[in-house]
């Protein structure tokens, strides 16, 4: 079986340990599936994130364990020669939101997010790439090359019930859901002129901050400058075939199964950051799923040892600030006239243990108090919540604890959510706006 992702990390799995039931075909991909030891932590409804689909259905068929069973059957040939387009496999994967919780919370670290990407790529190879997958997956290109048209089209679609209905009929995009609108102007990328007493950093401005929320990148630049750093904004290498298109982590391509496109983006990132890798320059990201994709999923694209070297330089904003705080950096912050805030962590922040850094960074603000919502996935999960057949499931996930907590919070309480999808879901489900931690820290600068 030819796989689209690099599964060599699983090469020694199943040797001399308790792993069993490795499927007959699939090589190392089959071993990645077979790491499940049936602990059934994925059928937990207490604290934690895993597994959002099980939490809303109560049905074991929508748990990680059941998905593993379906993949084992497919790789053992029980679903026929072209098993990846079998309806039984599609049904099993239908409500997976690629939250990464299973990799963190499962004792066996089942990486269902990557398993799903491979599944989608295999399915596309048999059936072709659906229009909706191309639409959502290629948003970095659409936003860069057709910005004005995309912005106008989205605004008109959100205002017209007829256009929203047509969008659902033609592309399967939920008519009930407003689509995020590109900002009037993208991030300008003005660089710091001062030398920076604490050195230089690179700000990796992802697709969503660049095109939809440039204020976040501007706020992060201001915060880092105030902390004493010279800020440069990541740019493609001079040899890049598209030097005017911003760098992209490839996350949207991975979640839609467009692996070759994701690999191309990964190569662009490595080429652009090669000098920074050599110098050890900190590279700071803002969108959790984007930065953490570079730290994690980039390994699966078979791009060589440089991926590990790059990972050592990558930080989310709050991770970097906390690290530097331990080294003597101090932000001059003032007390904010705000009631207790509500903080919602992106699934990937939780899966990679970043919430500790988020807590610590928020504690830098004098007198600032907050509660962290004990929640599973917000349910938006990239394009999942935009898909007509998943619209209800998406809101059901948000209603487990996130949206009730937002509604119960004081009407003037700030809501902190670093994830682009999370902010979109909170606004749609409650009518409340939320902010990125970079904006909060900028507002607290003395």
From TrEMBL:
Gene3D superfamilies linked: Alpha-helical ferredoxin
Domain 4Fe-4S ferredoxin-type: 87-117
A molecular-function term among this protein's GO annotations: iron-sulfur cluster binding
Keywords for this protein: Iron, Iron-sulfur, Metal-binding
Protein's UniProt keywords contain Glycoprotein: no
PANTHER family: ANAEROBIC GLYCEROL-3-PHOSPHATE DEHYDROGENASE SUBUNIT C (PTHR32479:SF19), GLYCOLATE OXIDASE IRON-SULFUR SUBUNIT (PTHR32479)
Protein name, per record: 4Fe-4S ferredoxin iron-sulfur binding domain protein
Biological source species: Beijerinckia indica subsp. indica (strain ATCC 9039 / DSM 1715 / NCIMB 8712)
């Amino acid at each position: 079986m030819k796989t689209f992702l690099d599964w060599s990390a699983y090469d020694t799995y199943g040797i001399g340990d308790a792993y069993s039931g490795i499927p007959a075909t699939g090589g190392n991909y089959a071993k990645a599936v077979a790491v499940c030891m049936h602990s059934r932590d994925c059928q937990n409804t207490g604290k934690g994130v895993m597994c959002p689909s099980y939490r809303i259905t109560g049905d074991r068929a929508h748990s990680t364990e059941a998905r593993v069973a379906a993949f084992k059957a497919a790789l053992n040939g029980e679903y026929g020669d072209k098993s990846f387009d079998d309806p039984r496999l599609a049904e099993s994967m239908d409500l997976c939101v690629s939250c990464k919780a299973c990799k963190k919370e499962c004792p066996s670290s089942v990486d269902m997010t990557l398993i799903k990407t491979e599944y989608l790529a295999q399915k596309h190879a048999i059936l072709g790439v659906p229009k909706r997958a191309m639409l959502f997956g290629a948003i970095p290109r659409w936003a860069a090359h057709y910005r004005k048209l995309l912005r106008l089209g989205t605004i008109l679609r959100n205002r017209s019930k007829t256009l929203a209905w047509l969008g659902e009929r033609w592309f399967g995009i939920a008519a009930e859901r407003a689509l995020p609108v590109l900002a009037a102007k993208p991030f300008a990328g003005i660089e710091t002129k001062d030398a920076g007493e604490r050195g230089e950093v690179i700000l990796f401005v992802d697709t969503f901050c660049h095109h939809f929320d440039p204020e976040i990148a501007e706020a992060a630049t201001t915060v880092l400058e105030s902390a004493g750093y010279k800020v440069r904004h990541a740019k493609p290498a001079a040899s890049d075939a598209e030097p005017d298109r911003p760098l992209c982590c490839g996350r949207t391509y991975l979640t839609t199964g467009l692996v070759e496109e994701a690999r191309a983006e990964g190569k662009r990132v490595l080429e652009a950051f090669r000098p920074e890798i050599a110098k050890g320059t900190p590279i700071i990201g803002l969108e959790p799923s984007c930065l953490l994709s570079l730290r994690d999923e980039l390994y699966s694209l078979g791009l060589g040892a440089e991926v590990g070297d790059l990972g050592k330089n990558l930080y989310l904003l709050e991770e970097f600030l906390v690290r530097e705080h331990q080294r003597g950096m101090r932000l001059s912050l003032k007390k904010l006239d705000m009631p207790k805030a509500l903080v919602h962590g992106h699934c990937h922040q939780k899966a990679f243990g970043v919430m500790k850094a988020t807590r610590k960074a928020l504690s830098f603000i004098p007198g600032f108090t907050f509660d962290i919502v004990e929640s599973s996935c917000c349910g938006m999960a990239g394009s999942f919540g935009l898909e007509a057949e998943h619209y209800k499931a998406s809101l059901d996930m948000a209603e487990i604890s996130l949206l009730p907590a937002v509604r119960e919070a004081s009407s003037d309480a700030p809501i902190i959510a670093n994830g682009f999808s999370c902010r979109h879901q909170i606004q749609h489900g409650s009518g409340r706006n939320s902010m990125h931690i970079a904006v909060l820290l900028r507002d607290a600068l003395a």
